[in-house]
Amino acid sequence: VSMEPLPINTEGMLLISGPQVMMGYLNDPERTQKVIFEKNQQRFYITGDKAKLDQDGFLTIVDRYSRVAKIAGEMVSLSAVENFIQVLIQQFSSENIELVVSPVPDEKKGEQIILLLKQNKGLSPEELLIKMRSSQMPALWVPKEILSVLEIPKLGSGKTDYAAVKKLIG
Fold first, then answer.
1. Taking residues 120-147, what's their average pLDDT?
2. What pTM does this model have?
3. SS in 3 state form for 23-92?
């Protein structure tokens, strides 16, 4: 990561600077070092958000960099897995199917992925799993289990509630 400004409409790490940025975590210099970046006597907070700035100056947060699973020693982007599955589903169904993946502990691989799939008329979890295994999807990305749910948990803002997803998975 270069910590240099990116071109317009390019996704990258969101840094925030200004008088509102904290000095650091109280009595925790190690944690502070991970989230505070200084350049040219200006302090930046490293948010962990993936964002882009458009030509009109609007900032769009597109993801969190922290949404990863460590499977068999490999860091797997959960957003990349979700995007791959969405594209795969679109090849077989015209229905817009909501889904979310979440990591769960696994004794052998460190973590595994569980897929929550909103119940739909077009594609059963079993059919989707067969399609994933026969696609170009990396084997590490194939969910250990697919759970069919009535609704994907959401926050009041309409975004996925990842804490509720983890609780639902158990």
1. 92
2. 0.70
3. CCCCCCHHHHHHHEEEECCEEEEEEEEEEEECCCCCEEEEEECCCEEEECCEEEEHHHHHHHHHHHHHHH
